[in-house]
Design goal:
- The chain is built from 5 helices and 5 strands.
- By secondary structure, the chain is α+β, with helices and mostly antiparallel strands.
- The protein has a 5-stranded mixed β-sheet with strand order 1-2-3-4-5.
């Protein structure tokens, strides 16, 4: 399977991801869909020690609906989505990100199966959502 820089919707691969061994990269393919299953953007990378780095933030509800094909892709909806994205980028430029970013490190990738890694990543996403749940309504 070929890995692209953006995979399965809201899971992004940082350039440092490619420092991981081929085996560990393949183990993580099982987890790519987690960005699509959760209303979060997740960024997978690696530190210099070969550990997985995971950055988690909240995506906008409109992004989540569009990525999961819950909005019909009519010309009007596509135009509204593009306008929404443009306003979000402008807001980030002027005021900074709306949602905070949490950074996690998952160690010992060589000793873990793809299922265990997927569960650990999901636990970190759940932890993020629990910690920041009060800010999601605004």
């Amino acid at each position: 399977m070929k890995i692209s820089n953006i995979s399965f919707g809201q899971t992004f691969l940082k350039s440092s991801f490619y420092r991981l061994s081929k085996d560990n990269q393949e183990k993580l393919e099982y987890s790519y869909g987690l960005g699509q299953l959760n209303p979060n953007d997740i960024f997978l990378g690696s530190d210099r020690n070969g550990n997985l780095t995971l950055d988690v933030t909240r995506c906008t509800p409109f992004d989540y609906l569009a990525i999961n094909m819950l909005i019909e892709p009519t010309p009007q909806n596509v135009a509204e989505y593009k306008l929404h994205r443009a306003f979000n980028k402008l807001g980030k430029f002027l005021y900074g990100p709306k949602y905070s970013i949490e950074k996690y490190v998952i160690k010992d990738l060589n000793k873990k199966t793809k299922e265990v890694l997927s569960y650990e990543i999901q636990d970190k996403i759940d932890e993020y959502n629990h910690i920041h749940r009060k800010s999601f309504g605004s």
